[in-house]
Write a structure and sequence with these properties.
Protein-Tyrosine Phosphatase, Chain A, alpha/beta, about 475 residues, 17 strands, UDP-N-acetylmuramoyl-L-alanine:D-glutamate ligase
Length: about 475
């Protein structure tokens, strides 16, 4: 497994994107077009894609369907990206999938001036695994953008577009209109386009494109949405209006308004999918909807990984995502002191993220993560000092040292004002969240199988423990 993983990683890396469909189109053609073996729910957007994919997956499995899910990036193990029925594929199957596709990958490499990338190879492997299993439906997350992303060789019967904001400027453009135009490319003729609440400029682009290709549009806040929400132990209690019914008393064990919005989008996507394949008018079974959402997890997204003090890891990696994280923490927690551990990639809007964090954090320890793209701590510290003031910024060369320093600061609050008063937020990047999970989580941070609707949940902490 390690040797195969290294072979894949040695290819053009994930951040070195050459947006084009020709290589991927040729690869899936050589493989017999496995992306057409079953229906696809295709998901893009700037933030919330993976959480929405996991929720959609849980709902579909609760309805008795066998699911394949492809998401990116991974937190701890590369196998997290290719999931069958809520469980990452085994090391043996990962190796077998690579050995199946690599001869065809090499043929494509020989025919093109740019070799296939790390992400393109994984996408081909995922399509092959899902076709061979076989699965009933694929939940497919875009890598970057949509129109020219290699996942777009598949034609989704449902296209979900989560909230759009500024990110990947070099590849997608520096306005929400330009970015929305790229992401709209996953909406195919005759599909159902499920649109999360969007900035007005992005919404106009998406709606215009959907009309041009003849897609049916479902908009959060119009055709579906969150009717009510209130805080609950370990999460929130929701009433969701779907495309085909209203679902009350839905417990979601995740924090934040943005996760409630993701849940509404996932519900609408599954209702739309059911309308394609079944009775287009009937609502979903409300008990199954409740059971599925109650078992949902979203590792690395406002995940409480330890207590005493409370340690939260979050994969926010752009200002919009960080703003959502801040709002969720302010709503769900009441810390007397919250210390931050921050490490981000140098090509991200680091000042923008730090500015969102400043009102929330008492102090911040800046460091680096395991990526070679990580901004150096000294550079991050200079940016942080301009926003927080030098007296609130500390520097650590290693993530484990940064966590230790932040925990010590949080312990001071616990000692002074009692249990629950001190916390640590580790954030800035998916890689940072994954590194922290590897350091702090059980079993080296690897994700357990996700429970089905009739299985017990496997959260790190029970709802009572989080109260």
């Amino acid at each position: 497994m390690r040797e195969v993983e290294q072979e894949i990683i040695s290819r053009r890396p994930e951040h070195s994107v050459d947006l084009a469909l020709d290589r991927m189109t040729e690869l899936v053609g050589l493989l017999g077009d496995p992306q057409r073996a079953c229906p696809v729910i295709h998901i893009t957007g700037t933030n919330g894609k993976t959480s929405t994919a996991r929720m959609s997956d849980a709902l579909l499995r609760a309805r008795g369907l066998r699911t394949g899910r492809f998401t990116s990036p991974h937190l701890v193990s590369i196998r997290e990206r290719i999931v069958i029925d809520g469980t990452p594929i085994s090391p043996e199957r990962f190796v077998a999938a690579y050995e199946e596709v690599v001869p065809y990958v090499k043929l494509v490499d020989e025919r093109h001036p740019v070799a296939m990338s790390f992400f393109e190879v994984l996408t081909g492997m995922a399509f092959a695994v899902f076709a061979d299993t076989p699965v009933d439906v694929v939940i497919l997350e875009v890598g970057v953008g949509g129109r020219l992303d290699c996942t777009n060789v598949a034609d989704g019967v449902v296209a979900v577009i989560t909230p759009i904001s500024i990110d990947h400027i070099r590849l997608l453009g520096n306005t929400v209109e330009q970015i929305a135009a790229e992401k709209a490319g996953i909406i195919k003729p005759g599909a159902v386009a499920v649109l999360a609440q969007q900035p007005l400029d992005a919404a106009e682009v998406l709606l215009r494109y959907a009309v041009e290709v003849g897609a049916t549009v479902a908009r959060e806040g119009a055709e579906f949405g969150v009717l009510s929400r209130e805080q609950a132990v370990g999460g929130q209690q929701l009433t969701l209006r779907g495309l085909r019914g209203t679902y009350e008393d839905v417990y979601l064990p995740l924090f934040g308004l943005y996760q409630a919005g993701n849940a509404a989008c996932a519900l609408a996507a599954v209702e739309a999918f059911a309308g394609v394949s079944e009775d287009p008018g009937a609502a979903l079974d409300a008990d199954l909807v409740r059971e599925a959402f109650a078992k949902v997890s979203s590792p690395g997204r406002l995940e409480v990984i330890r207590r005493s003090p409370t340690i939260i890891i979050d994969a926010a990696h752009n200002p919009a995502g960080m703003a959502a994280t801040v709002a969720a923490i302010e709503e769900a927690f009441s810390f007397a002191r919250l210390s931050g551990v921050f490490a981000a990639s140098g090509d991200k809007d680091v000042p923008g993220m730090l500015a969102e964090l400043e009102p929330l954090l008492t102090d911040v320890v800046v460091t680096r993560n395991s990526s070679d793209r990580s901004m150096e701590p000294e550079q991050t510290a200079e940016l942080a000092a301009e926003i927080f003031g030098e007296d609130r910024v500390r520097t650590a060369s290693r993530l484990d040292d940064a966590i230790e320093a932040a925990v010590a600061l949080a312990d001071e609050a616990v000692a002074e004002t009692g249990p629950g008063s001190g916390g640590v937020l580790i954030t800035g990047s998916v890689i940072t969240a994954g590194d922290a999970r590897r350091l702090l989580g059980p079993a080296g941070g690897e994700l357990p199988p996700e429970p089905s609707a009739n299985q017990p949940s496997r959260h790190s902490f029970t709802a009572a423990e989080l109260s």
